[in-house]
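FAQ
Q: What does a multi-component entry look like?
A: The components come first, one per line:
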Amino acid sequence: MTNAVEQLHAVKAKIASAEREARREPGTVTLVAVSKTFAAEDIRPVIEAGQRVFGENRVQEAQGKWPALKEAFPDLELHLIGPLQSNKAKEAVALFDVIETVDREKIAVELSKEMARQGRTPRLYVQVNTGSEPQKAGIEPREAVAFVKRCRDAHGLAIEGLMCIPPADENPGPHFALLEQLAREAGVEKLSMGMSGDYETAIAFGATSVRVGSAIFGSR
Ligand SMILES: *Cc1c(COP(=O)(O)O)cnc(C)c1O
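Then the predicted structure of the entire assembly, as tokens:
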């Protein structure tokens, strides 16, 4: 087994025990394996070990490695977890099965156009900047509920969940709790939260998917 495959199994075991501890149903948390910066040959053993859901943060990088992998493994599910520029909406809609970073009107408009044009309907999440960090993508928490509603009503986009990346230097718990509260207010079910350092905490706060990179693939 490659190191990444061993680490995949270790992460899955920790997710299972976090589910138990949180009295969540076994298997209700989806592991999104974040493969950014790693090459197709590093990713392939992890797919062969059974992992099917992956996350990438750059459209262009993903275009370089995922079309061939998706052809070889048709049941893969690819998530865009990095900021989306409106001029990349076309490529993103063509390649990704889930786009987790809808965070402004212009992106909603472009996605809606491209989805109609291509006849593809990637599932969508709204990214919330729970720490209101100026350098970070995501909609402000106080605007999040209205934005989800506008995506639905003005742009015809079904938003499935919310996503956040808490500030690196803060206790993530309050950010996870805020995201959970906003999801309830907005009437969406899915919560993408938790990374290598805090995915077990995120599961305790209700994460339905965790995005884990370095704990599987090693440091970048
Ligand atoms: C890179 C990245 C991750 C994974 O981070 P790790 O700490 O390596 O697990 C999760 N979410 C987003 C949005 C990322 O860009």
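Q: Is there any commentary attached?
A: Sometimes. For this entry: The longest strand covers residues 123-128.
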